[in-house]
Amino acid sequence: MRIDVLTLFPAMFAGPLDESIVKRAREAGLLDLTIHNLRDYTHDRHRTVDDKPFGGGPGMLLKPEPIFEAAESLGRDPTRVILLSPAGRTFDQAIARELAQEKHLLLVCGSYEGFDERVREALADDELSIGDYVLTNGALPAMVIVDAVTRLLPGVLGDDESSHDESFSRGLLEYPQYTRPAEFRGMKVPEVLLSGNHAEIIRWRTEQAKKRTQDQRPDMLKKTRGNGVME
Ligand code: 9D3
User: Fold this and answer.
1) pLDDT over threshold 60, residue 30
2) For the whole model, what pTM was predicted?
3) Ligand 1 nearest-atom number relative to CA 134
4) CA 7 to ligand 1 centroid distance, Å
């Protein structure tokens, strides 16, 4: 899969996408990721990317020309152009699975300044937020989306890592887990896990997962169709 990211803050991307699973995916040629500086698509001396809103009002807006020019100069058409903004629909695992099917994404990061509406009208296929809190710009959201989508690409995770996602536990929070030692500072691992009784262990884990989900994320139980599979 190819992902292009358009941002005013390319330096923010150094680090998170050069580590761990995303690094491995890039090295294996499974992910072709390029970060582009929006300012590189301006032509004036001051490399202007923003301007005042027509009709007045506070703040500035991202000008349409550099964004359109960047999108057009990326060559082979992206299969999905996605704006990142607090006004988008909320990114979730179902959207991550959908995006992982695409050949080529273009992620356009917003900033405190919004987009000129013509970018939405004539360029974007989609507009995503990563949640209801205010960030300074769309760079972290872009990294979040690249990370979530990359681990779903075929061949990126080992069999061990990926089969877990398909297991019965999907749609529920993780059950409590323990490793050695069986007793640590007086805290004991639940007896059932040491019992070797597999049916009993599965029952215990399911019950614990449901309890924890009810407690921490009752909204997740409403979202499933009773089969524990996340939509
Ligand atoms: C005055 C209205 N503000 C919206 C709540 C303006 C505004 C604030 C912050 C516009 C852009 C931003 C910068 N944030 C993003 O570009 C952004 C974002 C976010 O702030 N939270 C969650 N997801 C995202 S995706 C892009």
Assistant:
1) yes
2) 0.93
3) 20
4) 14
